[in-house]
Design a protein that fits this description.
This protein is of the alpha/beta class and about 375 residues long. Helix content is about 40%, strand content about 25%. It folds into 2 domains: about 5-255, Aldolase class I (TIM Barrel); about 305-375, Arc Repressor Mutant, subunit A (Orthogonal Bundle).
């Protein structure tokens, strides 16, 4: 059985951001449950060991929420049990998401001491007004301080997350944001166009009319400008929304895009393992209570058909700009030629200039990156 990536969901935040639809809870309201939550994470890992044996793990990713909000002793507690219940590969990538206002030099030093070697910093924008409107709690000075502390603590793999398409944002403003962030010399950048869910505060406001966002054409201009600016700073685009210096691609996220196995622990966390896909309970009390009884906290579980696995393999793989989907690896995995299953779709998309075959790989063309979702729909 292949190695797995391990995702650990830390669902606690200072407050809910106005654009966020992830499962998270204001820490002040649920802090009294935090010890029970981390004990539940330990129990879930025990159940994984009992059901699947000692799996080899080559990436660990602490996501949220805001993992850097909780005491570093909680993170260390989880890592100690990961090392007990899994076989941790040498050279493992261990990432943690952090918000700039929640970190200090001592916290970064503690992360480094416990084996964390990659930080993903949630910056989102440099605009003070927009940060307030987003319900973020940091300033640009906090970002500079966080980067300085991470570097002083010895981190040489630092990622930054940004969002474009924010209310009132225009192209020149976004370009200035990119230049300011690139001055901090991150090794990795995740740059996402804003996608609003109706369940978020901004989603509800947008429906009512008070908020105006850049339209699709303006977002497309921002996306195209991003490619030029970031590339000129020495970061290569390796996925539709992700850029890295060579060798600093997110190994954990590559697991998702390559259709490999991953396990998610924690409330709402998703897993894909041995043809099964499942997600955990979304309610914190339900998740904790279930694990107190040593029952698996699965909310739903699906068995993927071969056709569904093939479609996902192509859709996720096409997100990888230079790697794409290996035609030979597809055939080796599924025992059937990609062309045999998807000949009509491949021919049609190739004639439209949206995909191409190169060195045995199926790839999106450059002009298709803005139309990726329309390409993906062809394989569903």
């Amino acid at each position: 059985m292949e190695d797995v990536g391990l995702y650990v969901h830390i669902p606690f935040c200072t407050s809910k951001c106005n654009y966020c639809d992830f499962v998270s809870f204001p820490y002040a309201m649920v802090k009294h449950q935090s010890t029970e939550y981390f004990q539940a994470l330990k129990t879930e890992m025990e159940l994984i060991r009992e059901n699947f044996g000692a799996l080899a793990v080559n990436t660990v990713y602490f996501g949220g929420g805001t993992p850097s909000l909780v005491s570093e002793s909680f993170i260390d507690y989880v890592l100690s049990y990961i090392r007990r219940y899994f076989y941790v590969k040498e050279g493992i990538e261990i990432s943690i998401e952090a918000n700039p206002e929640t970190v200090t030099l001592n916290k970064f030093k503690a992360y480094a001491d416990m084996g964390i070697n990659r930080v993903s910093l949630g910056v989102q924008t440099d605009s003070e007004d927009c940060l307030i409107e987003m319900s973020r709690h940091h300033s640009w000075n906090d970002v500079i301080y966080a980067v300085e502390c991470a570097r002083e603590a010895g981190f040489t793999n630092l990622g930054v997350d940004l969002i474009y398409g924010l209310p009132g944002q225009y192209l020149e403003q976004w370009e200035n944001t990119l230049h300011k962030v690139l001055e901090q010399k991150p090794e990795h950048m995740s740059l996402y166009g804003l996608k609003l869910s109706q369940e978020t505060a901004w989603g509800r406001l947008a429906q009512a009319g008070p908020l105006t966002f850049p339209d699709e054409d303006q977002q497309a201009d921002m996306y195209l400008a991003t490619q030029e600016i970031v590339r000129s700073a020495g970061l290569e685009q390796y996925e539709i929304s992700n850029y890295a210096k060579p060798g600093f691609e997110s190994r954990h996220n590559l697991i998702y895009w390559r259709g490999q196995h991953y396990l998610g622990i924690g409330v709402s966390a998703a897993s894909y393992y041995n043809k099964y896909r499942w997600s955990n309970y979304r309610l914190l009390p339900q998740y904790i209570a279930g694990l107190k009884n040593r029952s698996w906290p699965r909310e739903e579980m699906l068995t993927l058909s071969k056709r569904e696995e093939m479609a996902e393999t192509i859709i996720m793989g096409l997100r990888l700009i230079k790697e794409g989907v290996s035609i030979s690896a597809f055939e080796e995995r599924f025992g059937v030629s990609m062309h045999q299953i998807y000949e009509k779709e491949i021919v049609s998309l190739a004639e439209a200039g949206l995909i191409e075959e190169k060195d045995g790989h199926l790839l999106l063309t450059k002009q298709a990156r803005l139309l990726a979702n329309e390409v993906f729909r062809e394989f569903i």
